[in-house]
Amino acid sequence: MKPFKIIYSIISLMILAAVITGCDETVPLSVKTGEKDAPFTFIPEHGYPGTTVKIKGKDLSNVTKVAFGTKAVMAEDFSAKTDTVITLVVPVGAQTGRIVLEKEAVVLTSATDFTVDDSPKPTILEFTPAIVGSGESVTITGSFLNKVTKVEIGTLAATITEQNDEALTITTPAGLQTGKIKLYYNYMTSYGIEKEDVVISTADLTLKLPTINSIISGGKSIDATDCWLNIDDEVIINGTVLDKVTDVKFGGVAATIVSATSEVLTVKVPAGATKGKISLTVPDGTTESGIEFKVDLPTITSFVPGSGEPNSGTRIFSVQGERLSTVNAVKVGDTDGTIASKTDNVITFTVPGNISGNIILKAKNGDVQTTTPFYFKGTFWVSDWDNTYDPVRLTSLQINTADAGSVTTEAGGPTGNYAKLIGISKAAAGDNRFRAYIRADGNPGEDMFILYTSSPKGVYFSFDMSYNQLPAEVINADGSVDVNIFSFTSGDRNPYGFSKTITIPFTGANQWKSVKVHLNDMVEDTNLQDGVSPSTPTSNFLKPNKQRIMAIMFSKAPTTASPIEFNLDNVKFTIE
């Protein structure tokens, strides 16, 4: 029987050890239903003996003992106890490890360790309020808070206004953003040197911004299918912190505030608003609505025709879209059209056949226009020095970088009159190379060459050229001549220009050659140098309706100042 007694004693010891040290282990017949699903948490995660700790969970009212290693705090020594929270002080002799709770016949063990500090350090038990704005007070409770020397929220310094061992009151800084609270303190190392350290809150102090619970107009939520807003309609926003709102925008358009309380804000739909989200701005930041508004405006999905030849009659346009029945007037460019018919999805109208530009639909709540214009196809003459063209696309022809020079109209060219350009080329490369300027910048607006289209695809610049005299250094070994074709932009002049280098296959003087350059092949070139892509790739492209000057420049320069004489004819754009 002796071996059986030994085995029985070992099994008894194992059961006892399991009851004492196991996580959520219990005496089998005493386990309550669902007890293993009752975890608990604690704050702070560390502390020196004397630090206040809060344990949070459920069914805590029957806890009789809380142990920190081998040192326990009995229920009668708890600072406070409810069914969900136990407040107590870390006992002297506490050890780093899991916190153990005992209640009735149940032992519960924390999921993480509580770290016992080796010297008194500030701890954060909680802070109130948890949501604040700049310049507001926050009270932090914990232990050893009298040791705190400075406080930061995120990276911004807060102002300490009151301080004792268990509480610290601060004023939040200007520019506050949501972030952790940082408590800085000094401590003495074991080798007698004072050092600074920091304690960081586990939870964020949240920036107080407006909240939006609903946005109503005419008794309907603004995101309702049948809720269409009109300019100057009143919109009611329900939420919080609305009395602090200083700026309201509808899709980026500033609105007028009619009235405001902390929970209700009334604003008017501003002119220029179309659709999008509503933003509310307070001194500390901006809140954006989760739903979108829409103003009762027509929308354009397509239109025909997209291009055509100019004519002396009228042109019929058909525009497809939505809510087109709200349109009360139309324009193409600056010219009024005549509405022939309209439904919610289609509107037709006429304009003179010599008009091009963007289509503009006018409605009571504002204007909408096509993203691309109607443009003319065909030939757009600049000059052939024989005819006068309307509209005028050549306001002057000039020589640049010449010590002396002239531009004259001569007769007897292959197709009639032509322009002769005579000058002295400077002995310098780069921007001083000899060139001719074909200028349209005497015309108003940005579309100085009056081409109507913003896309370079299918748009060509062409001219005929011959020379009577060129410096030898300008001519290639096979007789050909390299020239740079430049386009200078109008408007904000950003980018400044575009270029393309071409070779004209001359074999000698007095030979007329035709040159044609696709504007889509021209690349950004702000230095007017080599007509190649810039070192940094760019997504910019030449916009024909934003040109002011076309320039023809010889790619090479002579080593000494030399006379140049060349001729131009039949300068034009074609759109194919």
From TrEMBL:
<dbReference type="Pfam" id="PF01833">
    <property type="entry name" value="TIG"/>
</dbReference>
<protein>
    <recommendedName>
        <fullName>IPT/TIG domain-containing protein</fullName>
    </recommendedName>
</protein>
<dbReference type="InterPro" id="IPR002909">
    <property type="entry name" value="IPT_dom"/>
</dbReference>
<feature type="domain" description="IPT/TIG">
    <location>
        <begin position="121"/>
        <end position="192"/>
    </location>
</feature>
<feature type="domain" description="IPT/TIG">
    <location>
        <begin position="297"/>
        <end position="377"/>
    </location>
</feature>
<dbReference type="InterPro" id="IPR013783">
    <property type="entry name" value="Ig-like_fold"/>
</dbReference>
<feature type="signal peptide">
    <location>
        <begin position="1"/>
        <end position="17"/>
    </location>
</feature>
<keyword id="KW-0732">Signal</keyword>
<dbReference type="InterPro" id="IPR014756">
    <property type="entry name" value="Ig_E-set"/>
</dbReference>
